[in-house]
Structures are given as structure tokens and as C-alpha cells.
Amino acid sequence: xxxxxxxxxxxxxxCQMNDADSAAVARLLEGCGYVRAASxxxxxxxxxxxxxxxxxxxxxxxxxxxxxxALKRRRPETVxxxxxxxxxxxxxxxxxxxxxxxxxxGTQRLHRLPALAQQAxxxxxxxxxVLLSADPAGQAPSWLGSTxxxxxxxxxxxxxxxxxxNFCAYCIVPYVRGPERSRRAEEIVCEIEALTAGGxxxxxxxxxxxxxxxxxxxxxxxxxxxxxxxxxIAGLQRIRFTTSHPRDVNDRVIEAVADLPKVCxxxxxxxxxxxxxxxxxxxxxxxxxxxxxxxxxxxxxVPGVSLTTDLVVGFPGETEEQFERSxxxxxxxxxxxxxxxxxxPREGTAAASLPGQLSRADKQSRLARxxxxxxxxxxxxxxxxxxxxxxxxxEGPSExxxxxxxxxxxxxxxxxxxxxDLAPGALIEAHLTQGRLWGWEGEFA
Length: 445
Fold this sequence. Notes:
- By secondary structure, this protein is an alpha/beta fold.
- The protein has three domains: 7-129, Methylthiotransferase, N-terminal domain (Rossmann fold, 3-Layer(aba) Sandwich); 142-384, tm_1862 like domain (pyruvate-formate lyase- activating enzyme), CATH 3.80.30.20; 389-444, CATH 2.40.50.140.
- The protein is built from 13 helices and 19 strands.
- It has helices at 16-31, 55-74, 85-90, 93-97, 113-123, 173-177, 185-197, 223-231, 251-259, 276-281, 288-301, 320-333, 360-384, and strands spanning 7-12, 35-36, 45-50, 79-84, 103-105, 127-129, 155-159, 161-162, 181-182, 202-206, 238-242, 266-268, 306-313, 337-342, 389-397, 404-409, 414-418, 427-435, 439-444.
- Strands 2-1-3-4-5-6 form a six-stranded parallel β-sheet, with helices on both faces. Strands 15-16-17-19-18 form a five-stranded mixed β-barrel.
- Strand 15 (389-397) and strand 16 (404-409) form a beta hairpin.
């Protein structure tokens, strides 16, 4: 590989878990002597860390692989690796469509990347490793918590567990991430202490099914105990976590969010549909009334809490009446924000073979109606906050207007403020003056 040190480049698609995995791989590579390239075309090793929850991110990966074909012709020594959920699902079939791929690594095999890249560079040998296996100790691999690199950012994503065993009918995650595997609490705390010492002030704890944390451990740990331990880390200012299954939000979790001062007032609770029959066929294990009761309890115990969600339209067999009932449910719950999607069949999941698959036109029409409703609700909620004062963590200049500052309130909403000489991480009080779809405009209180 060229230069004094081999170089790498990582492209990432998908969720925050993939972002965290990519950051861990970067630390791993840099620990082996790699340095980050200025661009993909200058890298000795290119990693595509992929997602397959829906069809669209897969299409983006194939498009990117098409772009890299010409680079591989010009620089055959460049190692191209595909990893993550799409690699886990597709395996060797990826190479049949893109034979210039050198390495295909599944979700539990990313730690092999440095060694396999060196091997591919030296011999031209291509390899596929998509083995899914539980750690002998029943916990997530320790390489995810490798030593943080210097100059940590203000915020960090921290994987605390991987995998899921819920098997929702539409979801590919249990098949590509494997069963739930938790990291030891002490290891997580040590990593966050190191992040904090490097300047990090906010962490987001990540897991595909995070409230199941600790169920696979033999020491009796659970997520509330982990939250309590992280809350005690000196210098850390804010704690967030995602993703939570609604049926796992018990009174202990609610009390932890209410009582632990560093835990922010924001829960991401995917509902997916607002009709009981759809929820039953999705295997969600939760009814509309149960969710409404949970939302009421959270709002009563945690004033100002922001509730966000994931919503799917066009699940197989969804009727117009069921869709309308879902819209009425969303009007009743009033989510602060929703990530909305048209159902995308995933081969191997229960829903992919169900009858009643809707047309793309029907799904897109319903998605547009859902987005319009949610935009109306989000804007109305934010306008109701005008006149209040919130605590904001400054993140830096606004991307859309560098002459203004951007920060976030504890409930994870963006606040745009006048320009001021404030360093990232500063905590200030902001008086909210305008409610927007995306958050608020404000002034210093």
C-alpha cells in the first residue's frame, strides 16, 4: 500500500448503529497503522458499511459499487470491502453483481477487516465471511469498545448491545444482526469515561432492542442499572438512548428517565402502525390502547418529554379503513416527530410472502398523506412551546446559516440562536420565539 501508512475510506448507510460500527472500525484500522484518506479515490482500503432494512439503501450501495468499478480498474491494488447488514444478507451474491469486491464481511466479522485487507492486498485473494455466532461469554464483541481516538467530538454513539429476537414480520434485523448480545456494563462505562476525558459531553447508547440490555448476561445487569452507572460519570452532561420497544418500557424505565438528571427527556418508541389488526400481523406485541396508555404515563411523569416513532404504510393487506384508523391514532398520540416509510418486502421475513402486497403507487400515496399529517402535528407542537425557556447545548454554527448558532434542547429538538462567542458544548438558556417543523428559533434568555 502506498505512502508511509496505508489509507482507508468508509462510506456508511443506515442507522446510528452502523454509524457507531463504522467509528469502531475506524479506530480499529487506525490502531493498525492506517490513516484516513482525503477521499475514496485516494484510499488503499474502501469499506462500504451497508444497510438492508429497506430496498433503497441497497440500491445506493449497488450504485456506489458501480462507481468504484472504474477506480478498481485504474488502481487494482485498492481493496474494496462490503460489510454490514446487506453483506450479511446477500453474501457471495454481491460479488456476482460486482466482481471487483475483494472482501464481504457480515455484521459480526468487522474485526477481521485489517488482517483480511492486508491479505487481499498481498495476494489478491477475495474472501466472504458472514458467520453469525454468539460470543462464548454471551456478550457483544469487545472490539466495539476499543480505545477512543484523540480529539473526540462533542457527541458520541456507543454500542451497548447488538441483535434482536423480536422477529417483527417485516424486519430483517434479527436475521442479519443475530440474537441479542450485551456488552459488560463495566466495559461500557470505561469507554464513556475515556470519551468524556477526550471532550465528549453527550452520549447516545445504542441497541437494536436496547431495553433488552443485560438479559443475556449472567450477572443480572439490566438497562436501568446501566443508565444509573453512566449517569454517575463525571463530566458527562447528557445521555440519550435508542431504540426502545414500547412493550419493554416499564415503570422502572420511566422513573429512570424522570429521575436521572443526565438522561434526556426524549424516547424513540416505534409504533409502526395505528391499527390493532395490523399490529397483530406485524407481530409487534402491543395494542393501540397500550401505546396510548404508555404515552400518557410518560407525559405525566416526564413533563416536556418528546416522543418520536417509526411508522410504516402499505404493510401487506393494509386496507384504506385500517390506514385511516392509523391516521386517527397518530392524531390522538401526537408524536413530536415520526420517521415514515413505505413498506419494503425483505426476502426471508414473514411479511414478504404474505398476500395483499400493495402497489408502489398506493404506498406512495398513503406515505404522502401520513407525512402531511405528521408535519402538521410537529409544527403545531413546536408552536405551542413558543414563549418557554429551554436549556440548550451549543453544537456550532447553523449549517443553513453560519451567521447563527445551532444547538439542541434536552428533548433533542434543534434550536437556532443569534451568533455568539460560545464554544461547542456550552449550556445556555434559550427563550423560544418561533416554532418550526424542525424545532425552534430562539434568543438568549
